[in-house]
Amino acid sequence: MNIQLEEAVKQIKLWGKGKEFIPLHEPVFYGNEKKYVLDCIESGWVSSVGKYVDLLEDKLAEYTGIKYAVAVVNGTSALHIALKLAGVKRDEEVLIPSLTFIATANAVRYCDATPHFVDVEEQTLGLDPIALRSHLQEIVTQENGTSINKKTGRIIRAIVPMHTFGHPVDMDELLKVAEEFNLKVVEDAAESLGSFYKGKHTGTFGSLAAVSFNGNKAITTGGGGAILTNNEEYSRLAKHLTTTAKIPHRWEYNHDEVGFNYRMPNINAALGCAQLEQLPIFLEQKKSLTKKYELLFSNIDGISLFLEPQNAGSNYWLQTIKIDQSVYLRDELLLFLNNNGIMSRPIWTPLHELNPYQHCPSADLPITNKLKNILINIPSSPYLGVE
Ligand SMILES: *Cc1c(COP(=O)(O)O)cnc(C)c1O
Q: Which residues carry this modification: N6-(pyridoxal phosphate)lysine (predicted)?
C-alpha cells in the first residue's frame, strides 16, 4: 500500500500486544464471569428461571434508567416481541433504515409486516428526521389518525430508529416526526448499550426497545438480548409472550395464545451479570481506543475516524473509518488490512439491495448509497485501548 498505512498496521498490532490477527470485536472476561457461571451450575438452575435472570433484568433497568427490562434469547427476538407489542400486524409497514444489520428487517417480517426503507444522516449514521418527514409528507395520507401509504394502501404502524455502531441517532427530531404521523417508536438499541443521547440512555425514548448481548456486542451473555420499556403492561406481556404465553400455575400447563420460547437461560444471565459490572471499564477502554485511533488517522491522508455526533455519548461499539475514494478504493483497503492481520469489514450491504428485501417500499437513499462505499469497521475490542 503505502508507508503511512504500513506504520498504522504496526501500531494497531502493538496495541494488540503481539497478536498475529486482531479480530474486529472480541469479548473479554475480566471480572466475575467464571464465579457467577460456576455458581449457576452448582445451583442446578441453568435454564429459563433463576436468580441471575432477575438480577440481570434489575441491573439493566437500573443502568439504563428504564422501568422494566425483560431478558430474552437474543436481540432479534427482543425486537420481534417489541414490534408485536407496539401493535405491528400483518400487511402493515414499518419504517427502518436500509443501512442496518438484517435483524432489524427480519423482526419486522416475523410480524408478517413489511420494512419500508428510509435514508440516514451522515453525522449520526442513523435515520434522518428531515428526509423522513419530507418522504412521509409525500406518500402518507392520514385516516382517523392512522398513517396510510398512498402508494401501497398499507398502514404505516411504526418506526425503528437504530443507533449505528453505538452512535445515538437524533431522537428528539425523530420523536417529533413520529408524533406528527402517529407512529409507534421501537428503538433498535442492539448496538448501543452504554450510549447516551442528551444524557439519557438510548433505548429509553421509544415505547419499547431491544438490546443485544451477542458475542460481538458491547457486553455478552453468549447469546441474548432484552426488551426495554417504561410501560408496565408491555413488560408483563413481554414476559408472558416470551414464556410460551403460559399462565403461571404450580402444575397446570395452560397457555392463552401462541407464545414464544424466547426467555434467556439463567446460565447466560449469570455471564451477563458479570459483564454488566464490567461495562464502565469497557466503555473507558473503548473511549481511550477512539483517542488512539483519532491520533493515528490524523496523520493519514484519505482516511478519517468517525466521531460521535453532537449531543451524544457513544459507546463506540465498533470503530469506523471513512475513506476518501479519490485516495483509497474500499475493497483494496479491506484486502490490505485483512491480509495484514487487521480484521476489518465494510458497513452492511444496505438491506434494499438484499434478495429478501429488494422489493420493499423505499424512500430515496442517497446517503445510504454513498456511505456503503466509504465506511469500514476496524478492530474495536476494549483491550486495544488499554495504555
Ligand atoms: C446485533 C444486532 C441485532 C440482533 O441481535 P442478535 O442478538 O444478534 O439477535 C439487531 N439489530 C442490530 C442493528 C444489531 O446490530
A: 217
Per DSSP, 186 falls in state E
The residue to mutate among 81, 169, 188, having the most atoms of ligand 1 within 8 angstroms of its beta carbon, is 188
**pLDDT < 50 regions, the chain:** none
Measure the CA–CA gap between 107 and 155, rounded to whole angstroms: 17
Ligand 1 centre distance from Cα of residue 80 (Å):
11
Q: Which amino acid is at 332?
A: E
Q: According to CATH, where is 3.90.1150.10 located in the chain?
A: 3-26+278-350+374-385
Question: What is the predicted pLDDT for the residue at 159?
Answer: 98
- Relative to beta strand 208-212, strand 225-229 is antiparallel
**Can you tell me the distance from the alpha carbon of 79 to that of 77, in angstroms, rounded to the nearest whole number?**
5
Third-level CATH fold of 33-276 = Aspartate Aminotransferase; domain 2 (3.40.640)
Q: Which fold has domain 3-26+278-350+374-385?
A: Aspartate Aminotransferase, domain 1 (3.90.1150)
For residues 277 and 273, what is the distance between their CA atoms, to the nearest angstrom?
A: 6
